[in-house]
Known about the structure:
Elements: H1 3-12, H2 15-44
Amino acid sequence: MGLWDGLYRVLMRRNSVYVTFVVAGAFAGERAVDYGLHKLWDYNNVGKKYEDIPVLGQRQSE
Length: 62
């Protein structure tokens, strides 16, 4: 039994399991891409963001 046969037996034999796998994979993939791009944006814009400017990034205490 090969890898593809095993994946077929586990994931694609029943439609409900296959759809659940696809939806969960899409959700996890979206979260991973969002997290990765956010970290890349922060890395490339260090010192240029609103929070990094000392005068503008501070909130006034009440």
